[in-house]
Structures are given as C-alpha cells and as structure tokens.
Amino acid sequence: MTSEKPQADKVLPLEKEFIIKILMSDVDKAVSIQLKRMGKNAKIPGFRPGKVPTKVLHQNYGVQAQSEAMNDVITIAYEKAISEKKLIPAGPPKINPVETKNNEPSEIKEIEFNVVLEVMPEINLPDRKKIVVKKSICEVGDSDVDLTLDSLRKQKTQYIDVSRDAKSGDEISIDFNGKIDGKEFQGGNAENFVYVLDTGRMINEFDSVVVGMKVGETKTEKINFPEDYPAKELAGKNVEFYIKLHRVGEPKIPKLDDAFAKDFGIDSGGVEKLKKDVKENLIRESANRCLIRTHNSALDALMAATDCELPKVMITQESQRLADSTKVELKSKGMNTDDKDLPADLFKERAERRVKLGLVVGEIIKKEKLEPSDEEISLIVDEMSGVYEDPVAFKKWFLEDPKRRAQAEAMALERGVAKWILSEAKIEEVTVPVQELLQDATKGSESEAKG
After folding, report:
1. What is the DSSP letter of 156?
2. Beta pairing class for 132-137 and 426-431
3. CB 69 within 8 A of CB 46
4. For residue 6, what pLDDT is reported?
5. Three-point CA angle 211, 235, 338, nearest 5°
6. What is the pLDDT of residue 449?
7. Would the pTM count as exceeding 0.70?
8. CB–CB of 58/110 below 8 Å?
9. Engineered SS bond to 171: which of 99, 159, 242, 260, CB 3.0-4.6 Å?
10. For residues 90 and 78, what is the distance between their CA atoms, to the nearest angstrom?
11. Which of 19, 1, 21 is nearest to 9 (CA)?
12. Domains identified in the chain and CATH numbers
C-alpha cells in the first residue's frame, strides 16, 4: 500500500515523497524463504547441510534472515509503488521507517516507510525552426600550408652538441637533486635528465637557473614554486636544488627540400608533392573540425532553447565522477590530490551541462527512434584511428570490445541528433581560421571536449 505525503513537504522541484506500508505477515513469509535458502548450505555442527531444523536455523541466522527479508519486501513494495505512480527515478531513493507507537512486536501488523526520491524531468523540446546554429566554414590557403610545413620541420629538429653556455631552446642533459628544509622529496631528483629549455617541461624559475650554465658546471640555488603548482607538497614551497649540467644541444631545423620530403615517404615529386599532400590533409582535417564545431553549436543551441529541471542527484553523481576521473588522470602524471584539492563542487557547472545534454539528447533519440548505422560507427572509429601508426589494427582492437564500441555508438547518436537539429534550424555561417581548427584537434572532439 502507498499514500502521498502533502505536496508542501517537497524540497526539490523533482522530488516525490510517499509512504509505503509493509505487512508483517509478508515479512514473516520472506524470513521463512530466506531461512530455507540458508539451510541448504548451512554448516552447523551436528547437522547435515539441508537437514538443519528451522528452530536451529533461526537461532543461528535469524537476524541475517530478518534483515534480508525486510530489504526484499521493502524493495518489492517500492518498485510496485513507483510502477503504479508511473514514476521514473533519477537516482536511488531514501527510505526510512516512520516512527510508531511503542507497541509490542507481536502487536505490530504493518510498518510504514517514508520514501523520498527525485524523478526524471519532463523534457519539452523547442521548435527547431527557431533555433539558430553557427555553421563553421574555412578555406585552406598557401600560408596555412607554410605554417604546417614549418611545424613539421620543427618536429624533425636535431640537437647538435655545442660547448657554449646553455640558452633558451637548447636541449640539455642535467642531474638535479631537490630538498625542502634539507629533506629530499619524491620526484625531486634525477640523473641525465634530458629536456628542452623553456618549453614548459620545468617551471620557469628552474630554467632561468640553467640558462647561462656551462657544461660540467654545478649550481645550488633556491627556487620558489608557484602557489598554484599542481603537486600540493611543492605548491608555494622554497626548494633548494643542486644542478649539474652535462650536455648542451643546439637546435638544427632541417631545410625544406627533397631530402626532407623523403622523410615523409615521398620518393618522387619532392617538395611540391609534399605541399600538395599537406594541403589535402589540411582540407580534410579542417572539414572534419568544421563539422564537429557545427554539431557542437547545434547541441549548444538546442540546450539553450530547452528549459528543464535537472535532478540534483544526477548532478551530484556526475560531479563526483568527474572529480574521481580527474584525480586518476593527475595521479597517472605523478600528481597526488585529495578531496580538498579537487572537491566535487568544483565540477558542478560541467556536470550540469553533461546531465542536461544527456537528458535532451536521450529524449530526441527516443522520440525520433534514432539508431546509429554500422557505417556511422565505423566512420567515428576511422577518425579516432588517424593518429595511430596502424589505423587498421587500432580499429579492429577498438570495435572488438563492447564497451569501446558503445562509446562510438554514443558519439554517432549525438551526431545524429545534431543532424536532426540542423535539418530545420536557421543557419549562420562563420569563417574559422585553419590554425584555430587545428588547435581544436589537440583538445579532443565532439561535445565531450566542451563538457
């Protein structure tokens, strides 16, 4: 049995509160079922499994059977109640017993439980014809090709040993040993550590100490770490470093000639063929990035035009998930954090966007009966595989795992929703520089990069 609590008791817009009533006779039946189940494998001295008297079982397992039986009966009553009320829970409910008179246990015929839960919101989709979507377009010019070739040349930089003082942009090899208040710390020392000065690998103050040093020279300097340094044990600390310089390498960028083109597998056609290939790749990559930007714009416009309540429980869960995944990522990079450094509330705004996006997209998928085709899923994975040395092997590996395939299916569905929006929305074209689009590629793709 269930009954509604007064509407005034609601605290959250999507919160529902009601009473479920549990008959003790149903609990007693469930206890008997639990005891019979436990008796099949119960190991009690003096009795064979399956032959233990009920009274003995009750003495040994009565409390456990009572607890499990009560949980089972409550679950059945709760599920029946939400089915009858046609409620779709947004998260787990809070179920607490209602205080009753001090009756003797034998006099209690039923127990009341107060149920509080948040339900899924009603999504009213906007008129697509009133939505304005910015469609990204771009043109690849000769200057874009030149910038890309310059970048490729820098990637092939060789570092030639020199005897001069170290300067910005040099590749160096050093030993260093750091101490805080005379004590070494984790990650504070290394031998023959190789990196390029002033590229962000080390903090600026550390690089400033190395610049001007000679090969074989040693220094002991105190360096102040910034207050916002990710590793909390170093943030704002004054660290004393012993540094020894072993090697200085001067950068030598290769010329743009036929020999350079051969490094990219071009045996004939030289530089002109390389330029042609680069331009074709830029056109293809820019078109893909424009498409992603346009899809993201469509989803953003849809969410801005859709007004709906968001379940607090879903935002809390998503905030915590984002915080946990960020901690794992930072730990993999050698940076330890705790809840004080990365509280879940820090991710609330991002979580709200992700929850709303999921709800709105899910509603469209349901109403329009959208399903991704194998071709659409394959295209998603093809785009992912482009950065791998063996794209075919990556694609096979990715699709053979159901969880990874589900990721591609979700992305394909999201694109399907974007296309559905674009089919009737108002379109405004926006020209985007190629270099800006290429920066998008380093940040990830689809709305996940924005969420």
Report:
1. T
2. parallel
3. no
4. 43
5. 140
6. 37
7. yes
8. no
9. 159
10. 14
11. 19
12. 2-118 (3.30.70.1050), 128-144+267-449 (1.10.3120.10), 157-252 (3.10.50.40)
Render 290-333 in DSSP notation, one character per residue: HHHHHHHHHHHHHHHH------HHHHHHHHHHHHHHHHHHHHHT
Alpha-carbon distance values, 351 to 317, 323, 445 (Å):
9, 10, 18
Cβ 351 vs Cβ 318: under 8 Å: yes
State the DSSP H helix or E strand holding residue 38, giving kind and residue range, or none if neither.
helix 24-39
For the CA atoms of the chain, what is the radius of gyration? 32
| Dist CA 277 CA 288 (whole Å) | 17
What is the reported pLDDT for 446?
Answer: 43
d(CA 440, CA 289): 7
Residue 390 phi, psi dihedral angles, 5° rounding: -120, 85
Q: How far apart are CA 424 and CA 403, in angstroms?
A: 33
For residue 435 the two structure tokens come to: 């270099």
CB atoms within 10 A of CB 25: 10
Instruction: Output the CA torsion 311→316→317→320 (10° steps).
Output: 160
Query: What pLDDT is attached to residue 101?
Result: 67
pLDDT along the chain (451 residues), means of 10: 48 88 89 81 76 78 84 94 95 90 68 94 93 96 96 95 96 96 91 95 95 96 92 90 97 95 91 95 92 94 93 95 88 71 87 94 94 92 85 93 94 93 96 90 49 49
Beta strand 15-23 pairing with 94-97: unpaired
Residue 333 tokens, joined:
């990079």
Q: Give the C-alpha distances (Å, rounded to integers) separating 13 from 273, 332, 362.
A: 63, 40, 21
- How far is residue 163's CA from residue 216's CA, in Å, rounded to a whole number? 10
Structure tokens at 419: 């296309």
Which two three-digit tokens encode residue 316?
């809390």
C-alpha dihedral, 36 to 42 to 48 to 49, nearest 10° = 60
Whether the Cβ atoms of residue 309 and residue 15 lie closer than 8 Å to each other? no
- Cα–Cα distance for residue pair 352/451, rounded to 1 Å: 9
Task: Answer whether 17's CB lies under 8 Å from 10's CB.
Answer: yes
**Look-up of token digits 């074989």:** 216
Query: In one letter, which amino acid is 448?
Result: E
Q: Report yes or no: 138 and 288 within 8 Å, Cβ to Cβ.
A: no
Rounded to whole angstroms, how far apart are CA atoms 213 and 210?
A: 6
